[in-house]
């Protein structure tokens, strides 16, 4: 029996996930759809029944978002989703991703990269959102060039991932520790961000030192690009 | 109000769409596979056809192409319903001759709005 490369296994599993998500969308359409029909007649329902319908509606919407994320992961793993390769300024991309979160960004004026602008911006936004929701302030973002790589570190001063979750971050879903309130999140968005990094021949890593937890996106830079200047 | 053929091999989804469109006063002609969808469309000439893509006997693309080939200028608006929503899937729908493409899971209200838009287009 020929040896199977890990990348081939992941591609095959991605194909399986792609089919599975499509299979799950049909029952989800029925569950969410019938809940919506009931919600249209909410005035005829008891308070408990109204609450039940609201929960089904909200949770099925959440499931739909998660399935959409799994579908993108599956397509990235299987190679069905090919990221764009346009020349972009990573520093500007990160600033745009951070703007709506009001998070400070330390970055050079320009750091050239070949990649998918929209997908990478979403990945950075996911890391920032993750730090805000599950970590503790201050949340900071740094962009720099190290050798032949461009790096984006999103850091926070929370308690960090529990030891059992460290090995799973970006690899498989897990329950994240909350900054405040009950445990939330599945780590699925980090798996997606890692899949985006891998599709750009890069990686996503987690590290904690001196009370600061950081997710760092490492992406290869084109050979002839140079970073210029440094602004905050 | 309009006469709308709805084809889906999932009885629960067929009933869901039938109930929602019925609330807007539309008459729904149900079909449980692609062959039945084509036969009923040619017999009853509905104002609009909603086709699930993956169905027994004939898939939605085949039904869409057959309706267009056999009805010519009298063809009704045709909308595809599918769990597959990638760009290539949607493009496949257009290439089969569909006028619209709705991805599952959809909200019944969004489906009703798209139906209203298609019927307004057809009327205009």
Structural notes for this entry:
The complex is a heterodimer of chains A (232) and B (124). Chain A is of the alpha+beta class. Chain A has two domains: 6-78; 86-220, Histidine kinase-like ATPase, C-terminal domain (Heat Shock Protein 90, 2-Layer Sandwich), CATH 3.30.565. In chain A, 47% of the residues lie in helices and 18% in strands. In chain A, the strands form two sheets. Chain A has a five-stranded mixed β-sheet with strand order 2-4-5-7-6, covered by helices on one side. In chain A, strand 6 and strand 7 (212-220) form a beta hairpin. In chain A, helix 2 (47-78) runs parallel beside helix 6 (188-199). Chain A is globular. Chain B is of the alpha/beta class and 124 residues long. Helix content of chain B is 50%, strand content 20%. Chain B has a five-stranded parallel β-sheet, with helices on both faces. In chain B, helix 1 (11-23) crosses helix 5. The A-B interface holds A 22-23, 25-26, 28-30, 32-34, 36-37, 40, 60, 64, 75, 80 and B 10, 12-13, 16, 19-20, 23, 83-84, 86, 104-109.
Overall number of domains of chain A: 2
Structural class of chain A comes to alpha+beta
CATH topology of chain B: Rossmann fold
The residue ranges of chain B in which pLDDT falls below 50 over 5 or more consecutive positions are none
| Helical residue percent band of chain A | 40-55%
Strand content of chain A: 15-25%
Strand order of the largest sheet of chain A: 2-4-5-7-6
Distance between the termini of chain A: 56 Å
